From TrEMBL:
Membrane topology (UniProt): Peripheral membrane protein
Alphabetized GO MF terms: protein-containing complex binding; S-adenosylmethionine-dependent methyltransferase activity
Ranges of Polar residues composition bias in the record: 307-325
Domain VPS28 C-terminal: start-end pairs: 154-248
SUPFAM superfamilies: Endosomal sorting complex assembly domain (SSF140111), S-adenosyl-L-methionine-dependent methyltransferases (SSF53335), VPS28 C-terminal domain-like (SSF140427)
Pfam families: Methyltransf_16, VPS28
Domain VPS28 N-terminal: 25-133
Signal peptide bounds: none
Name listed for the protein in its UniProt record: VPS28-domain-containing protein
Domain of life assignment: Eukaryota
């Protein structure tokens, strides 16, 4: 009997007896634990991994936004997580291949069927919601903190930061630095700083956010057009005027009451500044381009401490007076940072084709590592120290009052330098030998600042009087004396120290001369042979002549200066010998000395004091003060501080004169 065939069965998605017949030979070759790769080409695998990471970031961000709106996550956790997701999103798109495959957020969403309105809006703005608008619970506005507004040093810091960021962005626009990767970070910092000051809406504040959205949608290297730059500058001026208007109203009714009002009372947490982790930095496994690595390493640069306690405002300026855009560096936790830098140095950077760019990355990473290896580990460096020209307090190390800091936060005209402050630029070579005179010590800075308060206490110097500094080192004290006392100063040290000393004096000569300061000469003076002195044949401000130099060798000085001169058992005898030789026998003659109170050198200080008294000198004035150094505490000149951070240094300053019986 004929049997009709079975009707054809539709193929199912899952294997069925109608669609699949198991093969024992094929089944034996399948490994269920084996990873199925989309591509066997390394470049394509990296591309797919980056796109998959972007996909997961978008999904996670959308869930985070919804959780924040439902109040299911704390604001601090939301801000940190959202900020990290946004940075990871931007970091992935810095790769040109990924950017081309991604095409755009809307295209990416359509391709993969994503319905993520919350994440879309957050990616469009590019900032966490808590940063876009100041959160009411975490940052209470200064202007409404109480019925009688008050301010603290922290409030002054936020005001200064906000004003500096506005000025920095103005400078960048004027210098046609119009790329997104230049303007976007500054604009973000403006919004963050403004929100830390006040959450009140001021005129044209919304335009800042709109420009942030515009920049956020541009590619990293894309630049604003000339017309867009003019519009940005116009809107920024209007927003800055509105910001200053709010602050002027507030400052007009502000009373400084830091003793009763704390940062918590104002709703401002001193620890709220974002601190990055090493894992937040570009990781080598992602193969970041050379430009990204160099930018990161530049952000990690560690400037030498200036030990300056006086609050300052405005944008840093070059010696020519041209305003220099200042990029505020992010804070990065130190844990793991040396290992991160070492990995860059040891990596072949095979994905970077340009050998020159590789060398730049290795060199920058090596410099960042040396900066964290103590003062002797880092190479040559420069620092700026600020010397007061008018007495603002009895102790020069005391900062300006909080009221002064707060009311100077709004910079009306940044083109005018503060005439009461002298910035001294110092170069310090690498300490490759035991030449400690190549470093600027805390006692030198303290003595340089104390000169303005000692000016009235010292006897009046004749107009043609000359001052001698013993052991001048980098020249800080001598240059300050020339500017403040307005007399000719001879700065002396050993032959190995003098070339750098002369370099520093020449670098600051115009600044000192512009204040009506005296001429400066550098020379070699060995304390073991104080009569043998060799000075340069030219003054820093103009030509000299050999005859005047011979005359200087035959005369003494009415004022001698010395800072940190004792760090060997032989030094008390050598120093007092030089003082006895060069100090005039006039009753008006003085010796001003500043010595750190190091425990290991107590016997040297006692020996110095005994020899000065035996010579017929007596202490006319003295005191103690505390400064800061990047070498270590006052108890050890031989041990430097970890990472070059340093610590407090207590110093003894003294003014000596001939005893009355002489």
């Amino acid at each position: 009997m004929y049997a009709a065939p079975h009707p054809p069965q539709p193929l199912a998605y899952a294997p069925t007896p109608y669609s699949y017949t198991p093969s024992s030979a094929l089944t034996a070759t399948i490994n269920l634990d084996e990873e199925v790769k989309l591509s066997t080409v390394p470049h394509d695998r990296d591309l797919y991994e980056s796109l998959a990471e972007i996909y997961s970031i978008i999904i996670t961000l959308d869930a985070l936004e919804k959780a924040y709106l439902r109040d299911s996550v704390r604001e601090s956790e939301y801000t940190e997580t959202c900020d990290r997701l946004l940075r990871q999103y931007r970091s992935n798109l810095t790769d040109e291949r990924v950017g081309r495959a991604f095409r755009g957020l809307e295209e990416f969403k359509r391709e993969w069927g994503l319905d993520v309105p919350k994440a879309t809006e957050r990616l469009r703005i590019g900032l966490p919601a808590t940063v876009e608008t100041a959160p009411a619970n975490s940052h209470r506005p200064l202007s409404t903190a109480s019925s009688q507004p008050s301010a603290t040093p922290l409030a002054a810091q936020h005001l200064v930061t906000a004003s500096e960021n506005f000025i920095t962005l103005f400078d960048a626009i004027r210098m046609t630095m119009l790329s997104k990767d230049t303007l976007h970070p500054i604009l973000v910092e403006i919004i963050q700083a403004v929100n830390k000051v006040t959450d009140r809406d001021f005129e044209n504040k919304g335009k800042i956010v709109q420009w942030l959205i515009t920049l956020n949608q541009m590619r990293a290297a894309e630049e604003l057009s000339a017309e867009q730059a003019r519009e940005l500058q116009f809107d920024l001026n209007a927003a800055y005027d509105g910001f200053k208007g709010v602050l002027k109203v507030w400052l007009g009714s502000t009373t400084m009451d830091g003793a009763r009002l704390t940062a918590r009372d104002l709703g401002i947490d001193a620890e709220d500044d974002d601190v990055l982790d090493v894992l937040d930095l570009p990781q080598l496994y992602t193969k970041p381009p050379a430009r990204t690595l160099l930018s990161t390493l530049d952000d990690l640069s560690s400037d030498p401490p200036s030990w300056e306690t006086t609050p300052r405002s405005g944008t840093p300026r070059s010696q020519s007076g041209t305003s220099t855009p200042f990029k505020r560096r992010p804070k990065v936790r130190s844990e793991g940072l040396p290992h991160y830098l070492t990995k860059i140095i040891s990596s072949p950077l095979a994905w970077i084709d340009d050998d020159g760019e590789k060398e730049q990355v290795w060199e920058a990473a090596s410099q960042r590592l040396s900066e964290r290896s103590g003062r002797t580990g880092r190479g040559a460096m420069s620092r700026i120290l600020y010397i007061p020209l008018t007495p603002t307090s009895d102790v020069p190390n005391t900062p300006l009052s909080d009221d002064t800091a707060l009311h100077s936060a709004i910079v009306e005209d940044d083109d005018n330098a503060d005439p009461s402050i002298l910035p001294i630029h110092l170069h310090e070579p690498a300490l490759t030998a035991d030449n400690l005179g190549l470093k600027t010590w805390a006692s030198s800075y303290l003595l340089a600042k104390r000169l303005v308060s000692l000016q009235k206490a010292l006897p009046c110097l004749p107009p043609d009087a000359k001052i001698l500094e013993l052991g001048a080192g980098t020249g800080l004290v001598g240059m300050a004396a020339a500017a403040i006392l307005q007399r000719q100063v001879y700065l002396t040290d050993l032959a190995a120290i003098v070339p750098n000393l002369e370099r520093n004096v020449r670098a600051n000569a115009l600044a000192v001369a512009g204040l009506g300061g005296g001429e400066m000469r550098t020379g070699t003076l060995d304390w073991s042979d104080p009569g043998s002195v060799t000075f340069s044949l030219t003054t820093i401000a103009g030509p000299g002549d050999a005859e005047s130099e011979m005359q200087i060798l035959l005369q003494t000085f009415p004022l001698l200066l010395a800072a940190d001169p004792l760090y060997s058992p032989d030094h008390p005898a050598l120093l007092t010998t030089a003082i006895a030789y060069h100090l005039s026998r006039s009753a008006e003659a003085r010796v001003v000395v500043e010595i750190p109170l190091r425990e290991g050198f107590a016997s040297e200080r006692e020996d110095f004091t005994a020899r000065m008294l035996a010579m017929g000198l007596e202490v006319r004035d003295e005191g103690e003060e505390v400064g800061y150094d990047d070498w270590g505490g006052a108890d050890d000149r031989d041990g430097e501080a970890e990472g070059g951070v340093g610590g407090e240094v207590r110093c003894w300053w003294s003014v000596w004169g001939w005893a009355a019986k002489l």
